[in-house]
Amino acid sequence: MDKIEFVLPNEIEKRSFEIIGQELQTMGIELNPIEEPVTKRVIHTSADFDYAKTMCYSKDAIQIAHELIKSGADIVTDTNMTKAGINKTRLASFGGQVHCFMADEAVAAEAKERQVTRATVSMERAAEIGKPVIFAIGNAPTALISLYEMMEAGRFTPEFVIGVPVGFVNVVAAKELFLESDVPYIINRGRKGGSNIAAAIVNALLYSL
Hints:
Elements: H1 12-27, H2 36-46, H3 51-54, E1 55-57, H4 61-70, E2 74-77, H5 80-85, H6 88-92, E3 98-99, H7 105-114, H8 118-126, E4 133-137, H9 141-152, E5 160-163, H10 171-179, E6 185-188, H11 195-207
Parallel strand pairs: 2-3, 2-4, 4-5, 5-6
Antiparallel strand pairs: 1-6
């Protein structure tokens, strides 16, 4: 049985990251130093070390995301849970804000009329924001599919995609679409992910600036 460890409240997160570092070292896993803060925060959020092996980053992904944030890019999420988890004060300090259109009545009505998901309509609304956007998708693979279809049709190309939807239906295939694209991305390969993971990735990017 693990012994109870006395840790001051303001030291808990620091201690957690120390433990993550120690366990990764024990496993013989060495993370890319530039990507390390993001992957470690995902592990911290989930207590799941599989992410050390399944997190995928496009070339210069961290630098590109940082530049977008510093230039005032907005974040679009596919759940209000992700929106709630993002440090909006930190993002606002760079001139950005977080949007989630999923609960909008007009979005729900249009989705019902067209017989598509709210995530599909939400991504179409996001494409009309008129400024650089980082998409943080943690729940709906149809959001990724919609973005890809708009891109293929020449209607809209996202500046950056964080693709970590969780589940079983179309999740793996939707992620693979962007793994094979030219769009900068941070994606977790496989079924794992979630709204909390999407928020953790955004916050890791914000905190490392």
